[in-house]
Amino acid sequence: TIGSLVGALAAALLGGGQGSGAIFAGSVAAGQAAMLNYSRMDETEADQIGLQYLTSAGYRPQGLQGAFEKIRRKQWASGIDIPEYLSTHPDVGGRINEIHARIQGLPAAVRNRKDDDTRFNRVKTLIWARYGDPDAAARFFAKQLEGKKPDCLAYMGQGILAERRNQIKEADAAFSKALACAPSDALVVREAGRFYYNKGDARAGRTLLRALELDPNDIMAQFFYARLLDGSGDKASAHKYYQQVLRRLPQDAEVHYYYGRSLGEAGKVFDAYLHLAYSALYQNDKRKTESWLKQARPLARTPVEQDQLKRFEAIYAERQEVWK
Fold first, then answer.
1. How far apart (Å, rounded) are the C-alpha atoms in residues 201 and 182?
2. pLDDT by residue (tens digit) across 168-222?
């Protein structure tokens, strides 16, 4: 800060004489205290914004206060006790009090929200099934099915896990149980449809279509249904679904790749090369990006195509700066 810098310079100008050391030490300490204060202000602002995000996402605001109460208990258990004036974070007790006061000022409808882990459990099931340690994931799903009431998501998780392990018969049986358990759950139906598509099963079309009836905005269902239509020869319908997905995920390399390949098969060569170039670009593959772009350039004949090419080259120029 300017104040601490001036103090340090004053100490230097005194040439090490009497009092210069005290001035220097005091200036540095003041500067450090000021920086700590800024850090604490940032943390307080982060708590305020975090509470806004939490409530906007539909969660109970008390969850943030509860999280800090857990941190405080951990501190007590570990015996860590740093004075607030030496800490880059505000005192946890102070943060709890501040958050509690803010919660009391929220509308009653927000304060009185009930705990609802439905969406969290759906995401947790997908993460366990796709990315968790296979043995640990298998135990997790088995435990979910121990109760009297069947857990439909656990059947789905077992299906995804079995497919991941290339245990196709087991996966098929698990998805059958999941569909029988939750025939109107869009996520369960979507995952079954995706499995049937990858398996080359005739049930894929009607299952993915059912998933889109249940949730028309399901991007993954749209993508796999586009690929299904593409493979069946219905390019025009497939392209509409690819375009819907790209409006939501404009930088998805995989979608650009399949759309570009489909456009090429439909004879739309410029568009095909351009989307393949986008696919390579978003995979950070400089060599392939330049190769596809080189083939697209001479094919840009109409004003619309030339504008599309200019837009791509502008994005490519920005990405090249990063690659340097």
1. 20
2. 999 999 999 999 999 999 999 999 999 999 999 999 999 999 999 999 999 999 9
